[in-house]
Amino acid sequence: MEQNTSHLTHGFDVAAIRAAAANMEEGPVTDSYAADREAVVQMLNDALATELVCVLRYKRHYYTISGLGTSEIKDEFLEHANEEMQHADRLAERIVQLNGTPNYNPAIIQQRSHAEYDDSLDPQAMVRANLIAERVAIESYRQMIQVIGDKDPVTTQLLTDVLKQEEEHADDMRDLLLPNNA
Description:
This protein has a two-stranded antiparallel sheet. The chain folds into two domains: 1-32, no CATH class; 34-181, Ferritin, CATH 1.20.1260.10. 65% of the residues lie in helices and 2% in strands. It is mainly alpha-helical. Strand 1 (8-9) and strand 2 (12-13) form a beta hairpin. The N and C termini lie far apart (75 Å). GO terms for molecular function: ferric iron binding; ferroxidase activity; heme binding. Keywords: Iron, Iron storage, Metal-binding. Belongs to the bacterioferritin family.
């Protein structure tokens, strides 16, 4: 006896699930993808640019900070630079999964970034610049999560994971501010 594939099984439309295999060149993006894929890729590329600027800022601060009592700050800068690079890698990977192209063009990274680069030499100015950038990233990720919502749960989860770490970074930077500089 032939099985009818258009029936519901445990509330699932089996025929629709099987039909998702049709456009294999689309990779993980099936017809039921509910978000505006191009808009999501653009948001992720802007977030990628932001993370790359943050990597560069933290690295510069790491290599140029000097002075008595700055070793703890220096260590935080390096740790954050490495974590920001991990964020960038995860964003680039998701862009590719959504059939987009990660934009690493140095000529436009600063223009697309939500955060700014900083070349200060004073340790507290560095900490302050990084705290400001982390707060910018936090707000950016919150807005992206709100826009994407449940239309793309994988991207939303990625952004939520990154947001959590950005909040930790902001907390770390706040803790490094001297009380009279807060």
